[in-house]
Each structure stands twice: as structure tokens, then as C-alpha cells.
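Standup notes, structure subgroup. Blocker cleared on the adenosine-5'-diphosphate input:
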Amino acid sequence: MKILVINCGSSSLKYQLINMDDKAVLSSGLVEKIGLSDPLLTHKKFDDKFIIDTDKQIDFGGKIQNHEDAVTIVIKVLLDKDLGVISSMKEIDAVGHRVVHGGEKYANSVIINDEVILELEKCSKLAPLHNPANLIGIYACQKIMPKTPMAAVFDTAFHQTMPEEAYIYSLPYEIYQNYGVRRYGFHGTSHQYVANVAAEFLDTDIKKLKIITCHLGNGASITAIKHGISIDTSMGFTPLAGLTMGTRCGDIDPSILAYLSHEMNLSIDELDNIMNKKSGVLGLSGISNDFRDVEDAANKGDKRAELALKVFTYHVKKYIGAYVAAMNGVDVIIFTAGLGENDKVTRANVINGLSYLGIAIDDNKNNVRGKLSVISTDESKVKAMLVPTNEELMIAQDTLILTSQ
Ligand code: ADP
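Run returned:
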């Protein structure tokens, strides 16, 4: 059974074709700059990497004007006799779509049908930067593969188990009832995936574990997973809340908006842009949203870069502390995503600041990148782990279960 996983952004489309018999990735890639004058396809077949200029090397029949063109090109490449990995479109048994927001309607993945599409269109209001792009990907695939079953897998679904006291904001209750303003949480597929992998690795029933998952990438969030279910998470109504991130500010006092709109004469949209795109580690350091650049600068003595990294580590520790309280304990703390999987310094700084939990980093074990492993000392009462995330596999697994029923 081969499943195509699609993750559509407003001008990009990521894909992965996975053979679910052995979970092998047959091909993966990214179409970028859709609709612009210089679109680009990066296609990977097993371990070989091809960067194909859209005009020269493959006849795509023109530019990549829209997502439908992008899906057409992806299928063409997958079928190509040199670059491809399948000989007929019929070999794609199902398509799994990443959808960012499923609102309160979806606590699980679903098979896409007309009714689901209508619901997703309603959810677009809640995630205007993401859901419309996800939907465009769905429409495009439906047009090109009308007979292929498709599933939607939501970033929010895993967090639908949060209790009321964790998801409600202390605004007039009618605002929640009438406008759906509440904490939804994101990165759900990643948090759920790494927690399951860790429980399996530790050979312990997840229903017996209290786990804190730290998804630390450009976007970053932390989740408290008690006995297998999400009970709280740092992102909120949107993915702007919680930790400081690459470019996002995370939690700030909401009154700052009113103050700045007067003082700087900025509109709400301009302030929203600052909070989403110009803040976080980029805004603090003035250097980059990439932690590698900021770490380089800090190592050379740049004070603002140092501050940005200190703020990030402090936020991660603070959320871990809060979630220890929320669960009345913790058994496993997991690091994942770009920074969590690759940056031993941040992992060590976070864990070594939590010695009150009876946890300590093992420097040898922590000297690792992207490998499933325990990184705390053998004596630690709480385990720290590195678990590489794999959102595509999780999407493919859910799609397989739903389409096999
Ligand atoms: P997203 O999917 O949110 O864009 P990723 O999970 O791919 O993010 O993480 C990307 C980030 O991970 C990069 O911006 C970079 O800051 C960080 N990162 C990747 N490798 C390293 C490394 N070796 N050291 C420190 N940070 C790293």
C-alpha cells in the first residue's frame, strides 16, 4: 500500500510517497514559489537529490501557476522513468493531507468527503494563513485523482482532549461560544507521534506515563501528555502563543497591542505581522531566526544573540515546570524537531536547569543528533529523550487506517 502525503502551504507543496508495507519513504520533495516567476521543484528519490529547473530539465508544460499545476508536476515526476518511483498513478492507494486547523469538530483524522470539505471551509476563518492553502491542495488532488481516497490529518486534533480549564481563556464566556476563541494547540501529530515512539522504546504502556514533549523548531510548542492524551499545550488560539520562537513572540501581555497601536500608530495587521514575522529569536537578536546563526553570534560574544538564546531556554524550562505541576509529576521529557533533535547545548541547558526533578543530562549520550535515544544519566528519576519526529509517517498511518476500513 503506497500513500502520498501532501502538506500544502500558500506558495509551496511538500510531498512524500511512503510504502506502508515497510514504512520506507520512496520519494519526497518540495515545490516552492508556486505562482511566482521562478518556481522550483526539489525532488528526492531515495537518497538521491535532484533540483530541477522547471523550464529546462523536465517539460512541465509551462510554469507552476497554481497548486493544481504543482500536484500535476509531482505526479509526473513520481511517474518519470528516471526520477520516478511508480509506473502508474493507480499505485497511489490513498492521499493523506496535513490540515492545520480542525476546530472543535475534529478530534481525529477523517476521510475527506463533501461534508468534511464544508467544515474545513468553516475552519479557515480560524487559521486564515494555513487552512485555505491546505484546502487548495485537497481540491487540486481531488481534481487530478478523483477516485483516490483521501484523509485529512489535523494539527489540532490531538489536543481536543484538553480539559476545559486548560483550553478556555478568561474572556466573557460568550466570546468562546459565539466565536470559538479558545486554546486549540498545534503540532499535534508531532507531539502524539514522539510520545508513542518513546513509550514503545521504553517498553512501557503510554497510559502509565506522564510525558512532556518539546517540539522545538522554527515554530515551537510544548505539550503535557498524561496517560497518552494531551492535557495542555503551549500554543493557543493560533500558533503565535507560548514559547518565543524563530520569528514569533510567544506569550506577551495582550495590552501591549493597544499601547503600541497608539504609540507607533500601527494597525492591528501591522502589529500582527511584527508579532508573527519580526519577533522571537530574530527580533531579540537582530541576526536571524535560525538558531545556528544566533548561536554562532552568541559564541562570538554578541550580547543580543546571547539574550535571545537565554530567553528561549528560560521559556522552555518555565513551560516544563508548569506542565510538571499540571500533571503532578513527569516521567519523560522529549526533545524533537529541528532544534530539539540537533542542538545538544539547548537540550543540556534546559535539562540541567531542572535538577530539582532529579534529572541530569549525560553529556556522552547527549552528544547525538537525530537519533532515538535516552540522553539523561542512568540515575535520573525522570528520563530525557531525543525522539526524531515524523509527521508525514503519522499522517500516512492515519490515512492507512481510515482508508482500510
Ligand atoms: P519548522 O518545521 O518549524 O520550520 P524545523 O523543525 O525544521 O522547523 O527546525 C528548523 C530550525 O531548527 C532551524 O531554524 C534551526 O534554527 C534549528 N536547527 C536545525 N539544526 C540545528 C543545529 N544543528 N543547531 C541548532 N539549531 C538547529
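Discussed briefly. The longest helix spans residues 303-327.
Next: hand off to the docking folks.
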